[in-house]
């Protein structure tokens, strides 16, 4: 699947390129003589005969050049400090990492270490990024009691704090619809209400990512940057996402959010308990979504919205455990799902008393 | 005689324990995964009691949060040394103490319906049985039986701590004010940011 490159071939290509270029201006000569990998003859033959994937080859070829460039630049400029140099190198190495699913254990540990260092340098916050996998025998499910929700939006507030959502544009994963009593037509629901709640004759319906068992957002991703985990949570590799927003368009529930600019979270409000596929600080141009608080749920905790709910309208648990609360709801209450006819099989049920 | 029986069964037990049973318990998840739930801070400070007379899904016992630790003026007998007498509704309206109480429960209820005048550190059921404040759900369940059933099952109420491990739920009065159980009207916590508008939601 992955194309392999032989380093020797790459050097030959580069050498040809530099010969052609050196006929016109003398200064432009490939990656430059200051580079540690200037000519194939200098390096060992065994290294050159190694086949590597494209990304690693690029890293090996240009990584040294970038390091040298940074060093020269910093030597010339007195304003550039040690952390700034570190940040550039770390950010460069981050550019060359692979898809999270294809990483080895070591590569995962390395990128997490880099991301933690970068957060410390850029925001001055010491965070802990986990990469905990799915717990075997667990499939997460969610139930929402529409007769209990009063529209207080405590869940939205908790979600923003827990998931380090962008404060500048006010990203929110959860939308609460105020609905006319007696009907469930979302077209008539009002998600922008701002008055005393609960309003007379209305009920409230919360929407967020439903973690569909048949997720259309995953199908349309052209680069495999989003996928469904074994515990049913659809996650995004923010660093692999190219920002095409196909997934945002494909989601029938409008559950995905796009970062048009670098998300801004005040340093004192950054949640240091993070997950690589969850609430770590997102880069600009990446799509993000609700992950049932993967950093919490995989530690046995409830998602922040369920924990914050003052009325107990939110039930979360393991669908595969017959003695769980979610299973009780599914077996004893009248439940329905949103846009069920689409066949997306959401793992998020609405129920009433 | 019992000792003799135990000794005679010992070799049999050894035999059973040593045979590798393929249908034994499933392998535990690898220790490298951080799957062990940390005991939530919420539960470390909030003690819970075993719920009496009700079981959760799968007939499993569960726990409810304690009430007594969160009541500002408990124990009641620190002021009310003597048993008190029933107050009329008008007297409750004109009361000079417990002014923080907003009483908006069913009109038929009087203080003595739930509070035990003879020993004020306890509640009582309609049939006169005394109930500890920590088991106040038994008092609520007399009228609100569908809610109590759903509370035991998990469709009503709120789970504390995490979704794994021992089930600890909020007791009735953890969310509802027993004197005015309906949730109050108030402003939403924050302003909504709706990503798209229009009719095609």
In short:
The complex is a heterodimer of chains A (353) and B (201). Chain A has 353 residues and is α+β, with helices and mostly antiparallel strands.
Overall description:
- The complex is a heterodimer of chains A (353) and B (201).
- Chain A is α+β, with helices and mostly antiparallel strands and 353 residues long.
- Chain A is built from 11 helices and 14 strands.
- In chain A, the strands form 6 sheets. In chain A, strands 12-4-14-13 form a 4-stranded mixed beta sheet. Chain A has a two-stranded antiparallel ribbon with strand order 1-2. A two-stranded parallel sheet of chain A has the order 3-10.
- Chain A starts with a strand and ends with a strand.
- With 201 residues, chain B is α+β, with helices and mostly antiparallel strands.
- Chain B has a domain at 48-175.
- In chain B, a hairpin with a 5-residue loop joins β3 and β4 (130-132).
- The longest helix of chain B has 17 residues, at 2-18.
- Chains A and B meet through α6, β5, β12 and α11 of A and α6 of B.
Structural class label of chain B: alpha+beta
Content of β-strand of chain A:
15-25%
- What's the total number of strands of chain B? 6
Q: What's the average pLDDT of chain B?
A: 78
Largest sheet strand order of chain A: 12-4-14-13
Number of domains of chain A: 2
Specify Rg of chain A, calculated over alpha carbons: 25 Å
Tally of helical runs of chain A: 11
**Cα distance spanning the termini of chain A:** 52 Å
Principal-axes shape call of chain B: globular
Tally of helical runs of chain B:
7
Oligomeric status: heterodimer
């Amino acid at each position: 699947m992955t194309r392999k490159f032989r380093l020797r071939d790459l050097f030959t290509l580069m050498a040809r390129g530099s010969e052609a270029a050196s006929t016109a201006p003398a200064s432009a000569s490939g990656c430059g003589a200051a580079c540690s990998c200037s000519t194939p003859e200098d390096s060992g033959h065994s290294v050159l005969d190694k086949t590597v994937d494209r990304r690693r080859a690029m890293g090996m070829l240009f990584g040294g050049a970038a390091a040298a460039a940074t060093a020269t630049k910093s030597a010339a400029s007195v304003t550039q400090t040690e952390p700034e140099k570190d940040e550039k190198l770390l950010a460069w190495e981050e550019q060359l990492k692979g898809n999270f699913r294809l990483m080895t254990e070591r590569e995962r540990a390395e990128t997490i270490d880099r991301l933690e260092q970068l957060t410390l340098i850029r925001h001055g916050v010491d965070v802990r990024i986990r990469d905990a996998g799915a717990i075997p025998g667990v499939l997460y499910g969610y139930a929402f009691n529409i007769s209990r929700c009063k529209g207080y939006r405590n869940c939205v507030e908790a979600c923003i704090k827990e998931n380090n959502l962008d404060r500048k544009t006010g990203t929110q994963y959860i939308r609460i619809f105020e609905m006319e009593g007696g009907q469930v037509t979302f077209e008539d629901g009002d998600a922008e209400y701002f008055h005393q709640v609960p309003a007379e004759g209305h009920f409230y319906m919360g929407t967020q990512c439903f973690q569909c068992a048949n997720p259309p957002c995953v199908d349309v991703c052209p680069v495999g940057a989003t996928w469904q985990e074994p515990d049913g949570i659809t996650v995004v590799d923010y660093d692999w996402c190219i920002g095409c927003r196909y997934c945002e368009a494909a989601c029938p529930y409008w559950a995905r959010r796009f970062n048009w600019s670098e998300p801004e979270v005040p340093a004192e409000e950054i949640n240091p308990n993070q997950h690589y596929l969850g609430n770590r600080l997102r880069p600009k141009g990446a799509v993000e979504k609700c992950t049932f608080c993967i950093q919490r749920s995989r530690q046995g905790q409830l998602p922040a919205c369920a924990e914050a709910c003052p009325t107990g309208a939110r039930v979360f648990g393991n669908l595969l455990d017959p003695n769980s609360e979610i299973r009780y709801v599914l077996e004893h209450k009248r439940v329905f799902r949103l846009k069920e006819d689409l066949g997306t099989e959401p793992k998020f049920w609405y129920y009433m008393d | 005689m019992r000792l003799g029986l135990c000794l005679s069964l010992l070799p049999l037990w050894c035999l059973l324990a040593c045979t590798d049973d393929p249908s034994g318990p499933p392998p535990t998840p690898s220790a490298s995964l951080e799957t062990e739930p940390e005991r939530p801070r919420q539960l470390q400070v909030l003690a819970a009691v075993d719920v009496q007379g009700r079981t959760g899904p799968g007939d499993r016992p569960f726990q409810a949060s304690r009430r007594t630790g969160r009541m500002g003026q408990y124990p009641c007998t620190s002021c009310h040394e003597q048993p008190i007498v029933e107050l009329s509704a008008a007297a409750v309206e004109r009361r000079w103490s417990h002014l923080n109480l907003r009483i908006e429960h069913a009109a038929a209820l009087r203080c003595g319906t739930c509070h035990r005048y003879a020993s004020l550190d306890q509640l009582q059921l309609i049939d006169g049985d005394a109930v500890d404040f920590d088991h106040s759900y038994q008092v609520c369940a007399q009228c609100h039986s569908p809610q109590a059933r759903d509370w035991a099952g998990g469709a009503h109420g709120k789970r504390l701590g995490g979704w794994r491990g021992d089930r600890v739920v909020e007791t009735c009065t953890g969310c509802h004010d027993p004197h005015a159980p309906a949730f109050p009207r108030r402003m939403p916590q924050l302003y909504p940011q709706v990503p798209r508008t229009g009719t095609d939601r």
